[in-house]
Amino acid sequence: MGLFGFLKGKKEVTLGAPVKGACIPICEVNDPTFAEEILGKGMAIKPADGRITAPVDGIVSTLFPTGHALGMTTEDGIEILIHVGLDTVQLEGQYFRPAVKAQQKVKKGELLLEADLDEIRKAGYDTVIPVIICNSEELSSLHCNTQGEVNAGEEIITYSK
Predict the structure, then answer these.
(1) CB–CB of 83/130 below 8 Å?
(2) Buried residues in 143-154 as b, exposed as e (16+ CB within 10 A)
(3) I need a labelling partner for 51 at 20 to 30 A (CA). Which of 32, 108, 114, 150 fits?
(4) Shortest CA distance to 56 belongs to which of 18, 82, 22, 100?
(5) How many CA within 13 A on the CB side of residue 71?
(6) If DSSP states are collapsed to H, E and C, what string results for the chain?
(7) Cα–Cα distance measured from residue 117 to residue 39, given in angstroms and rounded to the nearest whole number
(8) Catalytic-role residue among 83, 129, 131, 156
């Protein structure tokens, strides 16, 4: 079996950034639900634009009626939450344009939704985008990029089950 034989079968999966921007640790998000990892482990991005794309191939498992957040499920059963802004559910869908429907299959890089970040900021909301692995307790390893600038699609999270 060799020294590292126990690692066989553990496939590492990479999630791409759903948006261009600056990576920050989840603990720096100004919302305790995200910062204290109540919904799961992850990271956040201070977005440079409002084009939110699929971080990985999967299914849009949940699309909130307000368009401010969505859930994806990967082929290996990992549940990802992408939440555009803090408390933006209160905007009741204003400034959000979903490009997908619930239960739709998507490929990495495909447009999920567009958000008018300037208008969201003018309305007084933080536009930070938490990217959370909701079932992170099922993972054997998880690494998040928590610093530097990324383009949409560039690696932000790697994990293995």
Answers:
(1) yes
(2) ebbeeeebebbe
(3) 32
(4) 18
(5) 14
(6) CCCCHHHCCCCEEEEECCCCEEEEEHHHCCCHHHHCCCCCEEEEEEECCCEEECCCCEEEEEECCCCCEEEEECCCCCEEEEECCCCHHHHCCCCEEECCCCCCEECCCCEEEEECHHHHHHCCCCCCEEEEECCHHHCCEEEECCCCEECCCCEEEEEEC
(7) 24
(8) 83
| Residue-wise pLDDT tens digits, 94-141 | 999 999 999 999 999 999 999 999 999 999 999 999 999 999 999 999
Q: What are phi and psi of 59, to 5 degrees?
A: -120, 140
Asked if residues 15 and 160 have their Cβ atoms less than 8 Å apart, the reply is no
Decide if 83 is catalytic. yes
Cα angle for residues 145, 79, 136 (degrees, 5° grid): 60
The answer to pTM > 0.85 is yes
28 phi and psi, to 5 degrees?
Answer: -90, -5
Average pLDDT, rounded, for the chain: 94
Say what the pLDDT of residue 11 is.
84
